[in-house]
Amino acid sequence: MPHERARHKQRTEKLLEDAQIKLSSVISDTFGVSGRAMLEVLIAGERSPKALADLAHGTIRASHATLAESLTGRFEENRSPTPNASTTSPASDQTPRR
């Protein structure tokens, strides 16, 4: 179970990296309270760096502007993080053989 959790975290980090979201460079724990809040609204479709930065809690040392800048990225709809992304699969394009 711990290995699977680590694998999901690494996959999430890779998706953020591919989208040029530099969250891990400004907060110490991407999966802490603030990071999870930001990830949840990213999954829900929010793309505004300012709105995402507004979700920061507690002891984040980066300024609001620096945090917003790190959250400025680009998402392709087919690569955006989704809940259960590892367990869902697209509908089959293959036509049934007779």
Strand count, sense and barrel status of the largest sheet are: none
Give the proportion of residues in helices: 40-55%
Calculate the mean pLDDT score and round it: 81
Say how many strands there are: 0
**Basic shape:** globular
Task: Give the CA-CA distance, first to last residue.
Answer: 42 Å
Total individual domains: 1
Strand residue percentage: under 5%
SS field, number of helical segments: 4
Structural class: mainly alpha
Order of helices and strands: HHHH
Radius of gyration: 16 Å
- As residue ranges, the low-confidence spans are 83-98
Q: How would you characterize this protein structure?
A:
This protein has helices spanning 2-18, 33-44, 49-53, 64-70. With 98 residues, the protein is mostly helical. It has one domain. The radius of gyration is 16 Å and the shape is globular.
Describe the SSE topology.
Elements: H1 2-18, H2 33-44, H3 49-53, H4 64-70
Index terms:
single chain; 98 residues; mainly alpha; 42% helix; globular; disordered C terminus
